[in-house]
Amino acid sequence: MKRGMNIVVDNEPRIRNIKFTADTITAYLIDGRIVSVPLAWSWRLSEATPAQRAKWRIIGAGQGIHWPDVDEDISIEGMLRGVPAHRPSDLKRFFDAAQRVNGKPATRRSDRPRGTQRSSAKR
């Protein structure tokens, strides 16, 4: 190797192709790896028709997949890390539970004008 030459190695996972079974999404990566996750991890895809699932495109130079008919995106990072998509109602239950634990709404704002501090003296 000559002095001053750089060799760039792209080790980020990139999707080459995907396939479905009745229960799984399988991604075939450019580097030869095969990653398979349960179809149930994407509630949108698990409820989609086979024709809707078949209409997809690779996005971000292979970083993810987009299904326009069901408005779903899945990243290869999410598949590798095991991050399933949660239904919006699941998120609502999560935030409602957090609100009950904290005893106040997460979006509650103070009535005081911004930049003012509460007095430490008792009134």
Write the layout of secondary structure elements.
Blueprint: E1 15-20, E2 24-29, E3 34-38, H1 43-47, H2 50-54, E4 57-59, E5 64-67, E6 72-75, H3 76-81, H4 88-102
Antiparallel strand pairs: 1-2, 2-3, 4-5, 5-6
Series of secondary-structure elements, N-terminal to C-terminal: EEEHHEEEHH
Strand content: 15-25%
Rounded to an integer in angstroms, the radius of gyration calculated over CA atoms is: 23 Å
Average pLDDT reading: 81
Largest sheet data: 3 strands, antiparallel
Sum up the overall morphology in one term: globular
Description:
The longest helix has 15 residues, at 88-102. The chain contains four helices and six strands; from the N terminus they run βββααβββαα. The protein has a three-stranded antiparallel beta sheet. A three-stranded antiparallel beta sheet has the order 4-5-6. It starts with 14 loop residues before the first strand and ends in a 21-residue tail after the last helix. The chain is globular. With 123 residues, the protein is of the alpha+beta class.
Keywords:
alpha+beta; single chain; three-stranded antiparallel beta sheet; 123 residues; 6 strands; 4 helices
In short:
With 123 residues, this protein is α+β, with helices and mostly antiparallel strands.
